[in-house]
Design brief:
The protein has 157 residues and is mainly α. The protein has a single domain, classed as Tetracycline Repressor, domain 2, CATH 1.10.357. The chain is 76% helix and 0% strand.
């Protein structure tokens, strides 16, 4: 954080006060995380479509350096740091989705959405193998939207 503050020409204390932790600073720099509020805003009925299309567009544009890919690759080298970052990302996502997702299991549904996106990320953008990796991006977004609709809106009981 000190190096970032020096590069920005501000004090370490200012960066710490603004972001609170390294994890929060990382999240502020994550493209998908910053744009999440914009993707979530709108008609809840079309939320799964917006999330799927925004995710696929972001990943197709530059998956190699996408923070989610970087985070997933870093798990092997520093599991503790990756877990802290993942927890911070998940907590931020749950807060953002609470605007449109309700119910006592809302956090679990948002966590399941995250797990689905992680699975697609590993399959298509890291391992790069199988039907998801070979699928055209528009088809992937459509399939993903259907799955996300089920995760977000179908509740048991």
């Amino acid at each position: 954080m000190r190096e970032i503050a020096a590069r920005a020409g501000v004090t370490h204390g200012l960066v710490l006060r603004q972001f609170g932790s390294k994890e929060q600073l990382f999240l502020a720099a994550v493209p998908g995380h910053r744009e999440l509020d914009q993707v979530i805003a709108g008609d809840p009925e079309t939320l799964p479509d917006r999330v799927a299309h925004a995710y696929v567009a972001r990943m197709e544009a530059n998956a190699a350096v996408d923070p989610l890919v970087v985070l997933l690759r870093s798990i092997a080298s520093d599991q503790q740091a990756a877990a802290k970052l993942y927890s911070a990302m998940e907590a931020g996502s749950i807060r953002a989705y609470r605007e449109v997702i309700d119910g006592p299991d809302a956090a679990a549904r948002v966590a399941m959405l995250g797990a689905q996106l992680i699975g697609v990320t590993v399959n298509r953008y890291i391992a790069r193998t199988g039907p998801l990796a070979e699928m055209p991006a528009p088809a992937l977004a459509e399939h993903l939207a259907r799955v996300l609709r089920h995760i977000l809106f179908d509740r048991a009981g």
